Amino acid sequence: MSDWCRNHFEITGKSPLLAVAEEWIKGETAPLYRHAVMQSIKIFLAGCGGLLRPVKTVSFPPFPELIRLGTGQSTLANQAYEQWLEYLQKDVPLDGQHIRLISRVYHQSDIGAIKWESIPELSRRQIGRLIEDRYADWFGVATLSRDIDVALCWEKLGQFPDRSQPCDLL
């Protein structure tokens, strides 16, 4: 196909802002917002699978499966999960401060260190069902096959990209 059409952008502004715009255009920034989303999905799955539980009795009407097993012991991981639930209930924006807070509770929960094989079978089935139901939303590729490798999906949620996509609008 011939190159009969080209799009051109003329971006004007102050020098520091132009540098930020150029990083965005080229995809040269670390996509911390994507990291926070992936971390939150993994925490969400761990909560639904019963791997994490709130320390105090809470309710979450939009998705009761997050707390269906009740409260857990007062461990650092469960306290982190309870904090994450609070962010979810408040519907916090993914700004710099909340991205850092989500990253902190993700690391405190230690959910990133849990391998698929070490998850109890009942929890794996629950998590697997959710991954299959939300596969296209979370992994961005619809599949005609129902043979989704949920173990691979679990591991992918712990692999954070170093660079954003060029002109990433997320």
Radius of gyration: 19 Å
Helical coverage, percent range: 40-55%
Name of the top-level CATH class: Mainly Alpha
For this structure, the CATH topology is Api92-like
Short description:
The protein has 170 residues and is mostly helical. Helices cover 49% and strands 0% of the residues. It has one domain: Api92-like (Orthogonal Bundle), CATH 1.10.3530.10.
Topology:
Layout: H1 15-26, H2 32-48, H3 76-90, H4 96-109, H5 121-139, H6 150-156
Protein name: DUF1281 superfamily protein
Domain DUF1281: 31-170
Pfam families: DUF1281
What does this structure look like?
This protein is mainly α. It has one domain: Api92-like. The chain is built from 6 helices and no strands. α2 runs antiparallel to α5 and α5 packs across α6. It is globular. The two termini are 31 Å apart. The model has no long low-confidence stretch (mean pLDDT 89). InterPro entries: Api92-like_dom_sf (IPR023136), DUF1281 (IPR009694). This is DUF1281 superfamily protein.
